[in-house]
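Entry 14: structure prediction run for Alpha-aminoadipic semialdehyde dehydrogenase. Input pasted below.
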Amino acid sequence: AGPWASRPLRWVKGRVVTTYCPANNEPIASVRQASLEDYEETVKKAKEAWKVWADIPAPKRGEIVRQIGDALRQKIKALGSLVSLEMGKIFVEGVGEVQEYVDVCDYAVGLSRMIGGPILPSERPGHALIEQWNPVGLVGIITAFNFPVAVYGWNSAVAMICGNACLWKGAPTTSLISVAVTKIIAKVLEDNRVPGAVCSLVCGGADVGTAMARDERMDLLSFTGSTKVGKQVALMVQERFVFEDADLNLVIPSALFAAVGTAGQRCTTARRLFLHESIHDEVVAKLSKAYAQVRIGDPWDSDTLYGPLHTKEAVKMFLDAVEQAKQQGGSVVYGGKVISRPGNYVEPTIVTGLPHNAPIVHTETFAPILYVLKFKEEEEVFAWNNEVKQGLSSSIFTKDLGRIFRWLGPKGSDCGIVNVNIPTSGAEIGGAFGGEKHTGGGRESGSDSWKLYMRRSTCTINYSKNLPLAQGIKFQ
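Run finished. Output tokens:
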């Protein structure tokens, strides 16, 4: 493997990492990681490539990004299979993740003809006041194992049409998908006589990530990983509220998908389910029945809905969390054990009986464990939502319009994603994606998140023969 910087460089000094299939823990491949020396060379080539890329008009950059989307679309099933093989999510989710990158490319194409600042009215005669947006330069992108394609796509497609070069460090456990995606992108760039280093890759561990974080040549750094490591976008405690007037036909499938999808390893996975005391027992019973019908199996089987955890370490973390929940007064009403089969399979788990402020409830657990909590009043449960340090995604289930708008208002959810009658997971690309508090640090994908990848200049042009000063100041 090599850091794609024009023609591939060879990594010869970095350590070799073996990647494993989470479904059976069999080795897939050995990938040589980049050394810090390799990293230095890659950064230099990426910075040089930026000089070429920034000179290309934005609509032309958009056309090249469109071609990248088409190239990904042509290989979507193969890439989806690779995501499933290396990460462990079911095949349909692997394909869906690549499709998300394709969709962001389509979005970015249109955006390439729209980015820019307004012409503002000047208070001085014969003057024009404009906003000029320029690329920041080199965007570092560090992504996590759970979405090894989509998160890079959110960042790179928009960053590219803004005129930036990108340097990607994926998770060491998903190096194959990082290499495959980068090869596809590099071919499109080079077919357009653009250096492949515009989208460079360094496979590596914490040493490379630390180097990126400390490197002043990184004009912008996007990090997705644990709050413990990054304090930014991460493994979150997510929230969901179900009031007594909720439509349970929406609640059960929504909670099931949000808590069990991707084996509980999404950043928007539901961790806490708050149920009004009047419907608590009914919902728990129906949810347990729904859990029992989840088809667990091989990620590549089209009938499978629930696959393995990503690593053996994740299985240990799951067991530790279940034990802590029991010690703190919780009852496991469904699941809680490792499944006896090859691979990193655990039972999707429901825990009841814990207080809202139990330490385990406030602890990040990247596993399919749903803590079901009972509440009485709207005011208290809104406060419980906001008492944790994380704040990415939340959802409420109710038919009360007043409650909906209180939930969306200043005293409602303090999360970056605030939903009503839909799951916490499954965000569309057109909206800005990101959280608040320890899961804050910016937005990605849609809306006006493109502004993060650019620097803004306020420009005043005097096209008259006079020199009036602002605020009517006389200096003569």
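Notes: The CA atoms of residues 11 and 34 lie 6 Å apart. Will compare against the previous run tomorrow.
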